[in-house]
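Pasting two entries for a bug report.
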Amino acid sequence: MTFVPSDELYPFQSRWLQSSVGRVHYVDEGSGQPILMCHGNPTWSFLYRHVIGELRDRFRCVAVDYPGFGLSERPAHYGYTPAEHATVVGELVAELDLSELIVMGHDWGGPIGLSVACANPCRVAGLALGNTFFWPPDRRARMFSKIMSSWPLQRAIINRNLFVERILPSGISRQLSPEEFRHYRAVQPTPQDRIGVAELPKQIITATPFLSTLERGVQGKLADTRVLITYPMRDPAFPADTVLPRMRETFSDLDLRELPHAKHFFLEDAPHEVAVGIVERFA
């Protein structure tokens, strides 16, 4: 990956993990209790830039790019599944020897981060979740997966960069600046760079066994963990009236902060509110 992020928009030192599948990019900013920030599709650690900027004077902010995303390598023999991503992120947690960890997840970052947490519950002190999931797909999610897995949509994702060009801006209440938009485009400039983005919609259905195991793991190992939920109330992909009841049923120590104007990529719409919630919940 030859793209170099702007020092103004992304004023962080790039670091690298030589993982079992290839070189993985991450940032490690600040000191204090660590927060592991796991992104969704089609984003990368850039999504967390504002939150990192607000929290790094009180927390150690570790934000990772999965293989195939952001500045990380695109391994040739990698399946780009959530289980594989969780394995790589787990390697990073072990390499940095993170403890008293807050695991933060948005979209696919939820099941990926929670899988890491279930594998290492003794390292985990809290969860900071947004619009995400840790259970097998319902009818609505299966329909989305089938549509996005179809040949015309897969072609649009890979050849026309559908997720970045259309889905990303439609999922943000405000308008990204041209330079912000460039940082999402520039990390996947060719069809080959978008294989990971195209795979995750398929995984909504294909990863059902992984998600079933994860649901049992979260219920058995993380149910009593301190949880903050910052939830975008304008996200049609993860309707609050469907997701939040399942969160409440699972976690016994849950603090919900509604973000009334935020859409799917809420870390672009309401980063200050998220940062304040984390400080008030965990500091």
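Entry 2 (this is the one that rendered wrong in the viewer):
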Amino acid sequence: MGHARCGTLPNTKPWRVTVGHLADGASAAVIAGATSEAAVAGFELARRDRGLSRVVFLLARTALAARDADFSTALSRISIHVPQSPGLLDLTSGFAASLQNWHSQYRILRTDLGLIGEQAATESIVRCVGDRSLTLFPSPDALQDGLRTLSTPKGFSTLAHEFFSRFTQRFLHYHLDRELSQHAGHNGRFPDRQDRRDFVRDLEIHCREAAEITRTYASDWYSKSNFSAGITERQAQTFTTACMKKLRDELAIRGQLSA
């Protein structure tokens, strides 16, 4: 089946601009905008990546499955296999296994974009359920109750925002991390570890703010899709494509405004 990376950033003008911003001490917003422009090919791949849209499909359908009295059976219908009365680790492990099996079954190339999406999705489930159950280790009932609150249009918009903010953070770090290490040290942008931690924190905040653009769209899409014929993989693909474009455009605009 193989594995495909979402590409490197060559010595192009957009990437040289990004490196220049890093060296000049530009804000996280400017660097995020410049990186998204330099990584435009990656965003375009994300819009068409079947593995990524499968992640979004499972994320939406997992929340819907929590409405069923027999949660584990409802999950099995979307090929997420868990024990009866699953815990959070059972769910996240089953989610990851389902994606791996799907790629193998349909012989679809597994990409770094899909893996970034998978990591963002499981982190989002943990975060959103944890916020609702007020614990990192919810009981099976608390897990299902927390997920059920995410199965409404408003709840799904919260889950989608969490997912796309985490996806964006991971996507930008995918391209930036190697370059960041070149700017560490006494004469660099990051004289010590705290400076780099501050930058990473600012980038996280920026990505969360940029991903707000997906919140209302996610609520409307979820409501219409679920009402019409249930959420399908094709609908998830359309939704993912639109959100990737919204994110890329928003990052570019924010970067220009902050320059």
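Dev reply: Rendering is fixed now. As a check, the viewer should reflect this: Residues 98 and 118 are 11 Å apart (CA to CA).
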